[in-house]
Amino acid sequence: MSAEPSQVEATPVRAAAPIDKHEALIRSDNFKKIRTVVFASMNMSAALMMSREQVRAGIEQIAAEVVMRERLNVTTAEQTLIVNEILNDMFGVGPIEPLLADESVTDILVNGPDQVYAERHGRLELTPLKFRDNAHVINVAQRIAAAVGRRVDESSPMVDARLADGSRVNVVLPPIAIRGASISIRKFAKRNITLARMAQQGNMSPAMTRMLKIAGACRLNVVISGGTGSGKTTLLNALSHHIDEHERIVTIEDAAELQLQQPHVVSLETRPENAEGLGSVSQRDLVRNALRMRPDRIILGETRGAEAFDVLQAMNTGHDGSMTTIHANTPRDAITRLESMVMMANGNLPLLSIRRQIASAVHLILQIERMRDGMRRVTRITEVAGMEGDVVITQDLFTFRFDTTAYQDEVRGAFESSSLRPVFSARAAYYGLEEQLLEAMRP
């Protein structure tokens, strides 16, 4: 019984060869010749009004003619690859277009022309995709920015933008980015994520889902807290499904990515300053303006500065059911960050006054975390219970307790209910949902 031959046979073949071949092809003189002739021969403004498949036939014909005329050493498979790369340049985002189409990819990170990383299931991996050169990366970045009316160049080397599907894009160009242009894309899930689906995936428990649905129906003011890439916006979108369709909602974001399903939604987006340093519209400006638009709810994509004061004012002045996200590691940290941001806007406000505003405005803080196994979990649902002296009192309604005995790659644990009676149960009774709320809180 010799296991050795089978072990030799099972040795994986080195996969670098086709990767190197692909890279060599898109950086070859043959590719440059065909691409130059294609762009010189076609009416680009007319081509961009046509569909991708309509343009493909014309490019294939031009490519074939160039190969025949110049007698280029290009196979049929390589010719197809060249046509696809040119189409991606014209209609998409260059060589990273396949990653945008891959639903398992959540983040795409371009570090110059030679490094493209993708995140799948919470883990980063280096892909074989490459850009031709740094100018190619910059060209793609500028097209992304121009599509949403923004610009990025040496004088303005950083920009936040979005793709047509709502995916968030951040671009940093040289000389700020030392090793070449950087593009970071946070992809927006094509399938609609709901609270029920999050419970199925293990992001939260069914009891937490029931409680959050009641919170949405009772028009509680909710703050979603978490780190970068923890899934705050996804959870905000899922929560928004439980807003009544007859309500008027105003959303405010830096780069519009919320996808609300209700019919009466007004979406506002900030605007950076122009080349003369004029014309900027901040989130604070938009929040103030939103108060004059007769909203039932205001949803702020992310609170990160002086607009925190205006958001709390809105929550305290009849816009119940408003929601926002904030970067913080715990619910208590989220309260502290809100205090700091309000102070940025109004440094002369006493801390006690700020805390009273937070205690009366915010009802729930949802803490979401991306854990070491890549899974996003709602680790805590915390209720703001009021003030005791000069301290904001909170109580945890649900927590995720991880199993300290399990050290596998997968984090193990359980979602636990505190069995406490929520302070907002009186509000739930007003909406006829108290019994359902208490049922959801039972362990």
From TrEMBL:
InterPro entries: AAA+_ATPase (IPR003593), P-loop_NTPase (IPR027417), T2SS/T4SS_dom (IPR001482), T4SS_GSP_E_ATPase (IPR050921)
Residue runs in coiled coils: none
Family annotation (Gene3D superfamilies): 3.30.450.380, P-loop containing nucleotide triphosphate hydrolases
Pfam families in UniProt: T2SSE
Every AAA+ ATPase domain range: 218-372
Alphabetized PANTHER family for the sequence: TWITCHING MOTILITY PROTEIN PILT (PTHR30486), TYPE IV PILUS RETRACTATION ATPASE PILT (PTHR30486:SF6)
Similarity comment: Belongs to the GSP E family.
Record protein name field: CpaF family protein
Organism: Paraburkholderia kirstenboschensis
Lineage: Bacteria, Pseudomonadati, Pseudomonadota, Betaproteobacteria, Burkholderiales
